[in-house]
Amino acid sequence: MKKYVMVHDENLCIGCQGCSVACRNENNVPDGVYRLQVHMKMSGTFPRLKTDFIRQSCVMCEESPCVTVCPTGASFKTDNGITLVDERLCVSCKYCLLACPYDARFVDPITKAIGKCTFCFQNRLSAGKEPACVTVCPTDALVFGDVNDENSEVSKLIAKKNVEYPKAHLNTKPSLGFIKNTKGGRYE
Ligand code: SF4
Ligand code: SF4
Ligand code: SF4
C-alpha cells in the first residue's frame, strides 16, 4: 500500500507562486478561494533580516478532524491516506471547515461544496502523474512520493534532512512536511 507524502523545502522556495497558479489552472479553482497559498514572512531587523516562504494547504492528516466531524461521510480518506470530499454528499454544514486546524478548507463559491487540496488525486495521481504544484516548481522545492517505498525521492529526503510537520503537537499526523529555512539573519 502506498502512502503519499509531500515535503516543502523552505530553503529552496523563492515564493514565486508558480505552484499556486498551477494548482488553480489544474483544478479550476474559482477566484477568491485557494487550495494552496505560499505566504511570505519577513522578520528581524537590519542587517539581520530573514524571509521565509511558508506553504499553506491541506496537510493530509492521518488523524483528520475534518473526517471525524463530517455528519454525512462526504469527507473521507482513501486507502493511500488522502483526505477527499465527495461533493455529492456534502451539505455545506461547514463543520469540517471549523474543525480543520490548518485553515485548509473553503466553500466553493460555485458548487457550494467544500473544497481543498486533493494531492491532485482524481486528475493526476490516479493517472500516475505527480501533483501539478510539484511539477511546476522551478527550484524543486516540492518533493512528493510514496514513503512506503524506501527508494522514492521523498523517502530519501526524509532520511537525509530534518523534516518537520506543522502543528505536530496536535497529533493529527500530517503527510505534508517542511524543511525549515535557515537562510538569512546571520550578519556578523
Ligand atoms: S513554485 Fe516552488 S519556489 Fe515557487 S512558491 Fe511554489 S514551492 Fe516556492
Ligand atoms: S489539514 Fe484540515 S482538511 Fe486537511 S486532512 Fe487535516 S483537518 Fe482535514
Ligand atoms: S497537490 Fe494538487 S490540489 Fe494540492 S496544492 Fe498541489 S496542485 Fe493543488
SSE layout and pairing:
Elements (H helix, E strand, L loop, with lengths): L3 E6 L8 H10 L8 E10 L2 E10 L7 H5 L5 E3 L5 E3 L9 H5 L6 E2 L6 E2 L16 H5 L5 E5 L6 H8 L15 E4 L9
Protein name: Anaerobic dimethyl sulfoxide reductase chain B
GO molecular function, one term: metal ion binding
Organism: Campylobacter geochelonis
Characterise the protein shown here.
The protein is α+β, with helices and mostly antiparallel strands. The protein has a domain at 4-61 and 117-179: 2-Layer Sandwich (Alpha-Beta Plaits), CATH 3.30.70. The protein is 18% helix and 24% strand. It is built from 5 helices and 9 strands. The strands form 4 sheets. The protein has a 3-stranded mixed sheet. Strands 2-3 form a two-stranded antiparallel ribbon. The chain has a two-stranded antiparallel ribbon with strand order 4-5. The longest helix has 10 residues, at 18-27. The chain is globular, with a radius of gyration of 17 Å. The termini are far apart. The model has no long low-confidence stretch (mean pLDDT 97). Bound molecules: iron/sulfur cluster (SF4) (3 copies). One iron/sulfur cluster is lined by residues 13-19, 38, 53, 136-137, 139, 141-142.
**Mean pLDDT, nearest integer?**
97
Low-confidence stretches: none
Helix content: 10-25%
Cα-atom radius of gyration: 17 Å
Brief summary:
The protein is of the alpha+beta class and 188 residues long.
Key features of this structure:
single chain; alpha+beta; two-stranded antiparallel ribbon; binds iron/sulfur cluster
